[in-house]
Design goal:
This protein is α/β, with parallel strands linked by helices. The chain has a single domain (22-295), classed as TIM Barrel. It is 42% helix and 13% strand. It has 13 helices and eight strands. The protein has helices at residues 2-19, 42-57, 69-78, 114-122, 134-137, 147-156, 171-174, 190-195, 213-220, 231-234, 237-249, 265-273, 280-295, and strands at residues 23-29, 60-67, 83-87, 129-132, 160-163, 201-204, 224-227, 256-257. A five-stranded parallel β-sheet has the order 4-5-6-7-8. The structure holds zinc ion. Residues 131, 163, 204-205 line the site of zinc ion.
Length: 303
């Protein structure tokens, strides 16, 4: 009987322990949800609190958080120790192309004022750059207007996260008239990588099943890390595992970082855990250690 009790205890406690492994979420957004209006609109507050609570329950120790300036400010007040903040831009018409009624910056600019942005890094308010939304705004990655921001990020050693690949169906007719699929090819980042040889780049939504050259780019430019959200949610499980297997076979799985992009944490984490070819060490890397290395925040994965 005692053995049975012990067995039962182990059975119930193991998932609890498993759920407590540290996670860094490299694709987290401070967005409005549920209501137009300011971040303090009750529906937006409710959404914010539900996302932050879900992150806490899944032991997200750090979340790379991007969004409109006012939302970043409000969300970071709620969980200042766990959120690393980065601005979203460029913004066609000054508004965030993903949530197009919201201004990216309180001054209404399409790009952040450079001196203001540098001061945000200097005073510790922001730690990251991006999600850069060039594809939505119809502005190539190597557009001359981007140069001063890459220079700033390289000089201050700020990691830059860049949206690639695609967007929701009919994006050009819905939110973003300048959106083009052809602007999301990750190979188009190459000029940026050559011009800014020290720039740390996170290729977001990096899918080697559609863009196999992502693997060659990672080999050619070892500063590149990737996240593969939201494919854990939108692809059939077998296809998502083939995507992960492409990184594993190319021996690049140690530069894949977990990102939720708004997904439920436990189902997102399970999409990785169920890939039998990933070792425990691979999973610990994807969930935490790879991002800690990319962010130069070693230690956060070993509390
Ligand atoms: Zn994105």
């Amino acid at each position: 009987m005692r053995y049975l009790l012990v067995l039962l205890l182990i059975q119930f406690m193991l998932p609890a322990f498993a759920a407590r492994e540290p996670v860094i979420d490299m694709h987290f957004h401070a967005w409005p949800r549920g209501a137009e209006g300011p971040p303090d609109h009750p529906k937006n507050l409710e959404y914010m609190r539900s996302r932050l609570q879900a992150a806490e329950e899944s032991n997200v120790v750090l979340a790379a958080t991007s969004g409109p300036q006012e939302f970043l400010k409000r969300w970071s007040q709620e969980a200042p120790e766990r959120l690393l903040l980065g601005p979203v831009f460029p913004c066609h018409g000054g508004v965030n192309p993903n949530r197009n009624q919201y201004r990216c910056f309180t001054d209404g600019g399409e790009f952040p004022d450079l001196a203001w942005l540098e001061s945000q890094y200097a005073n510790g308010t922001y730690q990251l750059m991006g999600e850069l939304l060039n594809q939505y705004a119809g502005i190539p990655y190597d557009d001359p207007r981007m140069a001063q921001y890459y220079e700033l990020a390289e000089r201050l050693e700020i990691p830059v996260a860049i949206h690639t690949h695609a967007g929701p169906p009919m994006t050009a007719s819905n939110c973003c008239p300048n959106f083009r699929l052809s602007l999301g090819n990750p190979l188009l980042l190459e000029e940026v990588l050559v011009r800014y040889p020290k720039l740390k780049v996170q290729i977001m939504h990096a899918n080697p099943l559609v863009y196999p050259m992502v693997l060659d780019m990672m080999i050619q430019y070892p500063r590149i890390y990737v996240d593969v959200s939201p494919f854990q949610k939108i692809l059939p499980r077998g296809q998502f595992h083939r995507l992960l297997a492409a990184y594993k076979e190319a021996r690049l799985v140690n530069r894949v970082m977990f990102g939720s992009d708004g997904d439920d944490y436990e189902s997102a984490l399970e999409a990785y855990r169920s890939a039998e070819f990933l070792t425990d060490s691979d999973l610990q890397g994807i969930f935490c250690r790879n991002a800690a290395r990319f962010l130069d925040r070693q230690g956060v994965c070993n509390p």
